[in-house]
Amino acid sequence: MYRDISVNLVDVSKKIGTRYLFTGINLVINAGQCLAITGPNGSGKSTLLKIIAGLNQPTTGAIQIISNNKQLDAEERRGSLGLISPEIILYADLTGYENILFFTRLCGIECNQQMIEEYCRRVGLANDKEQLVRTYSTGMRQRLKFALMLAIQPGLWLLDEPSSNLDADGKKLIAQMIGRGLEQNATIIIATNEPWEAEHADYKIELV
């Protein structure tokens, strides 16, 4: 696993059609720091997050993901990060437990039954881990994505509207997890319109 991740945004711009969503973004986010990307719907928050993840390409500029003074290539970048997004699809015909087991095996991560049960307990799914994900509410699916984040333990967290569809208890859980992640030296980037999520940030980018 890659640790001590820093993210360098170097003159990053993105153009859709004839319109620039954002231009000339330059910033360095180091391990243990948090960046909040804010702005109205359609301003490019999720697009910028996808560019950092390597799922989209900037029109100009570059994203450098660095670990232990080494710039990671595309494959290494994928191994360094965890992405929570509405577009991340869970397997509806697997249980919560089976989803975690599948994705950790896909990532080459050892994860036994006791560990998975603990991750589910920490996100409030202890009694639901053996249920098919198709029976989960949207909030439960969001909690399961965070259980996966705990299991994968990436150095870089990319969170797109992380408290979406969560109740008050779920939002409190997410705040606690973000706080613990920063204490454990994770680098966290959040695309959000929630002021309380942005309170974790060392840096903010407001898109328009």
TrEMBL record:
Can you provide one Gene Ontology molecular function annotated for this UniProt record? transmembrane transporter activity
Gene Ontology biological process terms, A to Z: cytochrome complex assembly
What's the superkingdom here? Bacteria
- What InterPro entries has UniProt attached to this entry? AAA+_ATPase, ABC_transporter-like_ATP-bd, ABC_Transporter_VariousFunc, ABC_transptr_haem_export_CcmA, P-loop_NTPase
- Establish whether keyword Nucleotide-binding is in the entry: yes
Keywords attached to this entry: ATP-binding, Cytochrome c-type biogenesis, Nucleotide-binding, Transport
Keyword Nucleotide-binding on entry:
yes
| Domain ABC transporter residue range list | 7-208
Name of protein: Heme exporter protein A
The source organism is Pelosinus propionicus DSM 13327
